[in-house]
Write a structure and sequence with these properties.
- This protein is 54% helix and 12% strand.
- The protein has an 8-stranded mixed beta sheet with strand order 3-4-2-5-1-6-7-8, sandwiched between helices.
- Helix 2 packs across helix 13, helix 5 runs antiparallel to helix 8 and helix 6 packs across helix 9.
- The radius of gyration is 25 Å and the shape is elongated.
- Its EC number is 3.6.-.-.
- This is ATPase ASNA1 homolog.
- One of its GO terms (cellular component) is GET complex.
- InterPro entries: ArsA/GET3_ATPase-like, ATPase_ArsA/GET3, ATPase_ArsA/GET3_euk, P-loop_NTPase.
Length: 363
């Protein structure tokens, strides 16, 4: 591991998040398979010790919170077994989009429902991410109406997360497309509606299908822009980057940190999971191995040799993390365990390592 002075680096702990009482939104993200869900669950458990009510939300289509807590959750907040202030909900973008379409169709006449469905189908196929943007808008509208002190987002892998941050841009494109459709075909659609017996419009107030769609998108844009403003306030929102000490994961973390900076979103914590003996130094382990391998069986020597090679590789990438972020970021090393972290008991135990830093050996 590259040399660093212990006094020069921020504390290797997420205690800074727990202590910052003004934080309302905490995102946890990174490459797929690096332990985002475990980190989200553990962080939420620590937050629940210092907050009145905490909510964990999964925005990943492949939900894992139910598996992590060993408890089935749905799209409505549900209390975690063993807690009286920690809740979990898992959202489904497809379900939310269907709900939005059903609500719009319910306020339309029978003749106009097919027009609305056609418009929605055209919109979702021509503007990737619009369904997720509208679903996220509905989620934020719901969450903001609740009285949670802090909401932790267990996000999808990096690519999906960056698209989430680009929702304001997506909404502008969607509104522009609807305006174009209205300008080109609005009169024709209204005429067809009248010929088919519509009362001048699809909505309860006489709106045309395009006006109804435009109204819904405008409402969604307003919510997302408001939320986006909150996300760019470091006193309210922060992003925890999660990775493992391997090249691809470290590379993607750097890309994520840069993109977060472009979007104006605070990020000053990096959690590195699956670290082999984080308190040990690879060179010292190598000295021990050289002195002992003569007395080892061939199989034992091969196992220790592979472990040491992996440890050296990990230390190289951990050193790169400290070189990149050590001056400004809290870098937390989470040990590789000999068991899975599932269930409230194991998550609670493991969560302590997020706030009680590993005692690093300093060169």
């Amino acid at each position: 591991m590259s040399a660093f002075e212990e006094d020069d680096i921020p504390e290797p702990s997420l205690a800074n998040i727990v202590d910052q009482e003004s934080l309302k939104w905490v995102f946890v993200g990174g490459k797929g398979g690096v332990g985002k869900t475990t980190t989200s669950c553990c962080l939420s458990i620590q937050l629940a010790k210092a907050r009145s009510k905490v909510l964990v939300v999964s925005t990943d289509p492949a939900h894992n919170l139910s598996d992590a807590f060993c408890q089935k959750f749905g799209r409505d907040p549900m209390l975690v077994n063993g807690f009286d202030n920690l809740y979990v909900m898992e959202i489904d973008a497809n379900h939310d989009m269907e709900k939005i379409q059903d609500e719009m169709a319910a306020s339309a006449g029978d003749e106009e429902q097919s027009v609305l469905q056609s418009l929605m189908g055209d919109l979702t196929s021509s503007i990737p991410g619009i369904d997720e943007a509208m679903s996220f808008s509905e989620l934020m509208k719901q969450v903001q109406s609740m009285d949670y002190d802090t909401v932790v987002f267990d996000t999808a892998p990096t690519g999906h997360t960056l698209r989430l941050l680009s929702f304001p841009t997506i909404m502008e494109k969607a509104l522009g497309k609807i305006m174009d459709l209205k300008d080109k075909f609005g009169g024709m659609l209204n005429s067809v509606s009248g010929l088919m017996g519509g009362a001048g419009g699809a909505g309860p107030n006489g709106e045309s299908p395009t006006d109804m769609m435009l109204g819904k998108l405008t409402e969604t844009r307003e919510i997302i822009n408001k939320v986006n403003t909150m996300f760019q306030d470091p006193t309210v929102t922060t992003f925890v980057c999660v990775c493992i000490p391997e090249f691809l994961s470290i590379f993607e973390t750097e890309r994520l940190v840069q993109e977060l900076g472009k979007f104006g979103i605070d990020s000053h914590n990096v959690v590195i999971n699956q670290v082999l003996f984080p308190e040990k130094d690879a060179d010292e382990l190598a000295e021990w191995y050289e002195s002992e391998k003569g007395s080892m069986s061939k199989e034992c020597g091969e196992i220790c040799g592979k472990m040491l090679a992996r440890k050296k590789m990990q230390d190289k990438y951990i050193g790169q993390c400290f070189d990149l972020y050590g001056d400004d970021f809290h870098i937390i090393l989470q040990p590789l365990l000999d068991h899975e972290v599932r269930g409230v008991e194991k998550l609670t135990e493991f969560s302590e390592t997020l706030v009680n830093p590993v005692d690093l050996e300093v060169d």
